[in-house]
Q: What sequence folds into this?
């Protein structure tokens, strides 16, 4: 197993003059693992601007599974116990990859010792964290620029609508001494949403770098400050006129 670094190496992101390429992206959104038998992957979450590793997850597909008659695969994600000295936290999901779509079918959590299964038939409770698309149809696997999201430097505009995900440009990402030719996929969900992400994929459809941005007032009641005040040195994006602040990054052992 490759060891992820304790601190995220410095990286650069340089916009390219060439048009973005189309890509087949089979990874499970948010967990980076391809939901196919035999797959496994480790990935880390890094706070910015400290670049310190906050969490590491070891993921693997453990076998075939069915949810409400729909076949997929079961996968587990074990949080590395060495971080903070806590016991291992293990999550379990069921996901499905087809020729055209990738989606979650179920998630398992334990509450007070009771194993609680949440599936795509549980409505808003499932859709809030795991669902994607109308009736949880899932994310498209074959991506090409659609013009749903437009990017000019750090200024982004998007169409109205839910589940907005699009390729917004071509970039060279240099990290850990290697340069990667990538396209940037932005996930905005809907105008004014609380969280947006940018994900840099190589021509194999694998994640080189994933970055999360919070709307400036996201979870203001919990944190008591705008994110621009909490993280004044971090990158910012303006999306449909609203400020978003870079919070943390993720990389996988694919780049090691």
A:
């Amino acid at each position: 197993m490759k060891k992820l670094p304790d601190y995220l190496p410095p990286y650069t992101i340089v916009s390219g003059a060439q048009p973005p390429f189309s890509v087949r992206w089979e990874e499970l959104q948010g967990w980076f693992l391809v939901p196919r038998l035999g797959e496994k992957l480790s990935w880390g979450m890094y706070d910015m601007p400290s670049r310190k590793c906050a969490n590491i997850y070891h993921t693997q597909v453990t076998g075939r599974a069915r949810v409400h008659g729909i076949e997929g695969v079961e996968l587990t994600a074990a949080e590395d116990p060495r971080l903070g000295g806590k016991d291992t936290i293990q999550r379990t999901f069921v996901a499905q990859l087809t020729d055209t779509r990738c989606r979650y079918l179920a998630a398992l959590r334990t509450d007070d010792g009771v194993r609680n299964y949440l599936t795509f038939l549980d409505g808003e409770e499932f859709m809030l964290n795991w669902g994607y698309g109308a009736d949880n149809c899932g994310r498209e696997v074959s991506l090409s620029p659609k013009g749903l999201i437009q990017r000019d430097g750090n200024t982004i505009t998007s169409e109205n609508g839910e589940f907005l995900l699009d390729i917004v440009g071509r970039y060279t990402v240099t990290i850990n001494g290697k340069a990667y030719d990538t396209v940037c996929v932005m996930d905005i969900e809907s105008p004014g949403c609380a969280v947006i992400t940018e994900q840099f994929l190589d021509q194999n459809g694998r994640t080189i770098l994933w970055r999360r941005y919070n709307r400036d007032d996201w979870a203001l009641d919990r944190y008591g400050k705008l994110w621009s005040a909490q993280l004044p040195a971090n990158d910012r994006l303006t999306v449909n006129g609203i400020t978003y602040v870079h919070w943390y990054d993720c990389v996988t052992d694919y780049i090691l």
